Amino acid sequence: MFKIDYREDGAVRRWTTTEDGATVTVDTDYRPTIYLWAAEWETVQTHREHVAAHPNVASVTVASKRPGWRHDPQDVLEVTLTDIEAVDALAPQLANMGRPGDLRLFNVDFSRGFRYCLETGQSPVPTGSLHTLSIDVPAVEVHREGHLREATVEGESITGDPSQVLDGVLDRIHDADPDVLVLSSAEIVPELFAIADTQERDPIAVGRLPGYRKLAGESTYESYGQVGHSPARYSVPGRAIIDRSNTFFYAQTNLAGVLDLVARSHKPLQELAWASIGNVLTAIQIRAATRRDVLVPWRSFRHEQFKTMGQLRAADRGGFTFSPDVGLHEDVHELDFASMYPNIIVTRNISPETIRGDCDSSTTVPELDYEICEQPGYLPDVLEPLVTAREEIKAERAATDDPEQRAALAGRAEAIKWILVSCFGYQGFSNAKFGRIEAHEAINAYAREILLTAKERLEAGGWRVVHGIVDSIWVTPMAETDQRPLGEITAAITEATGIELEYEAAYDWVAFVPKKDTEAGALTRYFGRRADPAPDESPVKVRGIEARQRSTCDWVGDLQRTLIEVLDEHREPEPVLDVLRERLDRLARGAVDPERLLLTNRVGKPLAEYTQSTRNVAALKRTRATGIDLAPGQDVSYVVVDDSKTTRERVRLQGEPLEDYDADFYRKRAVRAAASVLSPLGVRERDIESHLADFESTSVTGWTVSREM
Questions:
Q1: So what's the pLDDT on residue 302?
Q2: Which residues lie below 8 Å from residue 557, measured CB to CB, with a gap of 6+?
Q3: SS3 readout for 376-420
Q4: Rounded to 5, what percent of the chain is helix, strand, coil?
Q5: Global pTM?
Q6: Looking at the 3D structure of the chain, how many domains does it have?
Q7: Are strands 132-136 and 180-183 parallel, antiparallel or unpaired?
Q8: What is the pLDDT of residue 703?
């Protein structure tokens, strides 16, 4: 099974891959289930008859379940509903039947496909390979109904009036009969149906049956101070949709990575494609809880236990970092603790029900003096298979030379990595289904102790730490000191800490970038050249600087990478400045393709709420003039054509004719990128400007300059 569709009558269609396409099985008997519990069973009994009489309730019965990880099995009311639509409608009514807080509901807010798999035991893992079909439509056409005059299907362009484009897309879907539609935007689906309705055509089939459903409308949200936008979600019968504008895991990994997590979480493919990291981690945890008869709270509440002032101070410290030694360092070695935070959880038995629990035997968290019960916790049980699987996948990838196999294994390893990365932070997330802030604090305390142990052992072995952050350490040989082999030291640190310290990479050199206008090192801004990169890895590793920032245009990013290559070859600033000057000359002469100067920025708020005339505001005014209103959290791409203006003439949008650009604006961006490359050598932005000013600019007229593509 690879796709689950709910029909309007509540029945469920299960789609399964076959050699000839797909088969469908209709389940008309499925009924979803939620649970009702109270600290005093008499409270539930008081309301039982009212619950059973509700028109959305099919039946009620008493079951024995655990309402939390620290609870033994207790009586709960198992409420079977008439259909999936009843869950969201009925849950608030049941929760408010008694006094506030008396009744608690469980297993309420599951995504629909995941709920079906969880409650019926059906696996959403496809038995064979899936056939995909990609469809891309320019964003400007997706946002304006009836303007679809261009689409690209598997790299083949289809153009014409909307009717011709509709026919071309449908013909290719019919011929390919895909299991998965990979769309540039899911809004393509209603747009195709809108065109068909305008022409009064018979119901069309983008899926394996006619019709489509809107699963959720678009929304704007804020997370950790960042505004995001969640596009509307759609479903078509018999085909999973991966919306590239609304997918984390497919964008960060590949189909193999997504399917690996489908198997671990039992979230169907389409749901997993749009799910967040925390959503998938929660699904994996929910499966573990279900196997242990633990119910999943609807609205989780976990009070924070009392702490002394000393504990509060220590608990608030976070991870440990060593300030980077600014400069260009040769013969550098990077060491990483393998999946440090997940391994701390596993080896120290950190789990919401073991931390500061009531137990007979325990261990003590350093600095915090929290007690951790020795009875095995559920969270280590969830994470240990993931840690082991990732290590095995990485070893398998290293052993194969098959490019396709390496790519698939890389996607799987990367997908698991994101789950492991999030498990630590999710313990401190207030809306986590299963989490505890004390567990989050304990993990940090162990991490600090481990990193300090590693530093002491490395320095004792003749290695100088030039940077360290949370779970990674960069070292270089101490001058005039004999070095103990790194293999011996890492083995000793592994034994002392219980977590493997891996030799990640050797670098010919690494440059740590200072913060702007200070000599202190920036924790996450560095670049360097690997001594022996893997076949599918770039020899140059870049972190934090402009070439890695999503708001950097292609031309500036390419320029910065070129400057790094020149620095690698010459190890001095003059040749780098020569290349910069040559590129700036071409920019000033208008010889750069404006398409390579497109900036992509996220919209922070509605146009009416902006109080200053920024570039984003100019771009939003231009999009509105075309009939499109972008929501907060969506991206807008444009070229700056005259940065001195405050009107919408300041920019040109992607998709508009791009013939000119503001050379001075992009020059500043280029100089800033060059400063990131040269600042480790002591050359700052003002020094670069001074150097460039020493050369007389020459105006070139009367001949044609070909533009860089």
A1: 64
A2: 546, 547, 673
A3: CCHHHHHHHHHHHHHHHHHHHHHHCCCHHHHHHHHHHHHHHHHHH
A4: 40, 25, 35
A5: 0.86
A6: 4
A7: parallel
A8: 35
- pLDDT value, residue 270: 97
Task: Mark whether 537 and 406 lie in a shared domain.
Answer: yes
664: left (phi over 0), alpha (psi -120 to 50) or beta: alpha
For the segment 197-238, what is each residue's pLDDT rounded down to a tens digit?
A: 988 888 899 999 999 999 998 888 776 667 777 889 999 999
Mapped onto helix, strand or coil, the DSSP state of residue 330 is: strand
| Model confidence pLDDT, tens digit, residues 104-161 | 999 999 999 999 999 999 999 998 899 999 999 987 777 666 678 999 999 999 999 9
Is-contact 517 351, C-beta < 8 A? no
The rounded distance, in Å, linking the Cα atoms of 323 and 17 is: 53
Tokens of 555: 């031309």
Residues 459-499: pLDDT tens digits?
A: 999 999 999 998 899 999 999 999 999 999 999 999 999 99
Distance CA(465)–CA(476), nearest Å, equals 7
Instruction: Please give, one letter per residue, the 3-state secondary structure of 285-324.
Output: HHHHHHHCCECCECCCCCCCCCCCHHHHHHHCCCCCEECC
CA distance 619 to 422: 35
Residues 206 and 325 in one domain: no
CA distance 617 to 623: 10
CB 138 within 8 A of CB 149: no
Is 383 within 8 Å of 423 (Cβ atoms)? yes
Q: Which residues pair with 555 in a beta bridge?
A: none
**Hey, what amino acid is at 454?**
A
Tell me whether residue 556 is exposed, middle or buried, using C-beta atoms within 10 angstroms of its C-beta: 0 to 12, 13 to 18, 19 or more.
buried
Query: Which of 38-52, 271-285, 364-378, 692-706 is the least confident region?
Result: 692-706
169 is a domain residue = yes
Domain span holding position 58: 33-108
Place of tokens 């608990």: 315
Are 320 and 270 part of one and the same domain? no
CATH of the domain at 207: 3.30.420
